[in-house]
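Quick one: Basal-body rod modification protein FlgD from Burkholderia dolosa, structure tokens please.
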Amino acid sequence: MRGAGMDAGGPGVLPPGGAQPNDGPSNLFTTLLIAQIRNQDPLAPMDASQFVNQFAQMSQVEAMQTLANLTALTAGMQESTLVVTLGAQVGAQVMVKADAIDLGDTPVRGGFTLESATSDATVTLTAADGTEHRISLGAREAGAHEFDIDPAEHGLAPGRYAISVSADNGETPSTELAGELLSVRVGQNGRVILAIAGLGDAETADITRFLGR
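--- reply ---
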């Protein structure tokens, strides 16, 4: 005959380990206490302050791991949301910071921003064999500027070219190029990767403008 509170599985019986599951710090404390009792030298028991320090250190490590897991989960959710949002823009024209382009027969639209005025800005395209093609844009004021490059007009054969902008005032601004957003995916490093026609892969930070369809 069982006494009150001694029924199997009842409130008087604790699961293995001596603590209810998911007790957090309480479960950690119990686990550490049991391990200490089992392993300490009976003739030289651990000082209470040492035990408290160990418990505090374990609690801190556990809290940091929990925070890291939550941060990773939040980052993953943000990336997933970004993929869905940018996926709706597939087919749109975008301006991207780039230093190379695959030229065909179609004119290329680009842009750059100057911090101060210059007497001449130059676009330089370098072919795979090292041949440089310089296109003068003339004087430019401070601010944002755009340009168009017609491969046929400048005798540029189809292929991949490195591209850069320089100014007589010494500036070498970042080059922005227009291209169609082809697809959006998450890379192995967890970052969102955009595939741009004629430009290749780019990260979200490289996108400067959406130009529409």
